Amino acid sequence: MTREELASKIRQHWRKWLPKKHLALKESGRLMEESNSLAMRAHQRWVELVERGYQDHEADEVVNAEYVYLEKPEDGADADRELDAELEEIRRENREMARLFAGLGDLEDED
Predict the structure, then answer these.
(1) Structural domain spans, the chain
(2) What is d(CA 84, CA 63) in angstroms, rounded to the nearest whole number?
(3) CB of 35 within 8 A of CB of 24?
(4) What is the pLDDT of residues 27-83, one digit of tens each?
(5) Which residues contact 83 (CB under 8 A, 6 or more apart)?
(6) Is the dihedral of CA 13, 17, 19, 25 positive or negative?
(7) Predicted model pTM
């Protein structure tokens, strides 16, 4: 996933689920700066995961959970509980994948 794709996804998430934050950043002229900064950190994490052996879609899921969908929706945003449950499930899966991949690294060292 590219930094540009991540920045766009972050802004879309803020616009839909965090409209007050999105509006405040837009009005202050910091929307692009903030989303690009977060996207840069997210992209660095994505590259790190891929280099450790994650498939692209697996790295996408981790990065989405850790950087894109991290904040809870604001009051008035739809489906708070459903989103919270989804995020918790993604985090559980990501922790399990991290444990599995950590074990695979040990196996590769034995060769």
Answers:
(1) 3-109
(2) 16
(3) no
(4) 999 999 999 999 999 999 999 999 999 999 999 999 998 988 877 666 655 555 666
(5) 17, 69, 72, 73
(6) negative
(7) 0.65
For the record, the structure tokens of 12 come out as: 């879309």
Instruction: Note whether 31 and 71 are within 8 A (CB).
Output: no
Q: Which two tokens stand for residue 73?
A: 């929706």
Is the Cβ–Cβ distance between 34 and 7 less than 8 Å? no
Tokens 């969908």 belong to 69
* C-alpha torsion 93→99→101→106, nearest 10: -170
Give the pLDDT of residue 90: 82
110 has a pLDDT exceeding 60: no
Distances (CA, A) of 54 to 29, 82, 93, 96, 110: 36, 27, 13, 13, 20
